[in-house]
Amino acid sequence: MSITRKIVLSLAANRVVRSIASKYGLKLGAGRFIAGVTLEEAIKRTKELNEQNLWVTLDHLGESITSKQEASEATRIAIDTYAAISQAGLIKTNVSVKLTQLGLDIDSSFCLENMRKITAKANETNNFLRIDMEDTPRIDVTMEIFQSLLSEFGSAVIGIVIQSYLYRSKADVEKLGKQGVNLRIVKGAYKEPKEVAFPAKKDVDDQFIALVKQHLSNGAYTAIATHDENMIHPLLAWIKENNIADHLYEFQMLYGIRSDLARKLVAEGYKVRVYTPFGKEWYPYFTRRLAERPANALFILKNLFKK
Predict the structure, then answer these.
(1) What is the maximum span of the chain, computed from C-alpha positions, in angstroms?
(2) Does the annotation list 289 as a binding residue?
(3) 133 is in an annotated binding site
(4) Would you say residue 239 lies in a domain?
(5) Which residue among 20, 35, 57, 249 is least packed, with the fewest CB closer than 10 Å?
């Protein structure tokens, strides 16, 4: 992990910094990365993105909750999100969730039941649900819950995320590829020890490209989540050389980051999905975006000194 990233994550954990950011952050520039606090705001922004021929994944922010009441409320919001998507006719929009928001750290069986309710709603509305991957101590139980839901609902309804900075990811992709799982491949944004994750960016990038190729070679749907043109262009060349069908992949980018590149790819005929977060508990997500890219922090600092 870079020194800059360590500093940002440490500073972000400071109670005083968190208090100030939570109170003023959206006004000072964090709103660039968050589609709104309410579901209504998120749906409005989603319509605008869909009209630009951008696909969307909505994510109601929140993680590491500590009560079943909070987890049940998060479950209700996820279900309501599918209902709002369906009512608005947003056929280019799906949903992603984090299991810690749905009770994973309280009781994995309780979390599975919450996930079953959400997945059933996705199925009922002819939609799709993505499970976001979290830090290493939670990966195995996340995989167990995913496999239970996959066997019940199938890969057309539920998919998962794989992080390229982890040593284990190659083996995970090999297994999931044989099952035809719809994967979102990302670099990873959590603070992980060198015992489980590549410390060097080049190794993370190299494995990212290798995992995308591996999954596509298995004929499985692959969401390529990166803003890095130095990775996108070589992958596009490989996709063309290997006659990979267009319906097997899409590019994914985070809301508020490299919108210019997203529009460019759409103009060239590629499918691009914008990962679009919303909700009151936006701070942990926001700090990871700052840690990943110092330019994001500079954007916020500039706003601090505006009138």
Answers:
(1) 56
(2) yes
(3) yes
(4) yes
(5) 20
For this structure, is 184 an active site residue?
yes
Q: Phi-psi bin for 243: left (phi > 0), alpha (psi -120 to 50), beta? A: left
Q: What contacts 73, CB < 8 A, 6 or more positions away? A: none
pLDDT for 180-239, tens place per residue?
A: 999 999 999 888 999 999 999 999 999 999 999 999 999 999 999 999 999 999 999 999
* Inter-axis angle of helices 294-304 and 3-12, nearest 10: 50
- Is 119 one of the annotated binding-site residues? no
Q: How far is CA 178 from CA 14, 111, 280, 281, 291, in A?
A: 44, 26, 38, 36, 34
Q: Rg of the chain over CA atoms, in angstroms?
A: 18
Domain span including residue 177: 35-281
| Catalytic-labelled residue, pool 45, 184, 205, 273 | 184
44 assigned ligand-binding residue: no
30 is a domain residue: no
Instruction: Indicate whether 123 belongs to any domain.
Output: yes
284 in Cβ contact with 63 (< 8 Å): yes
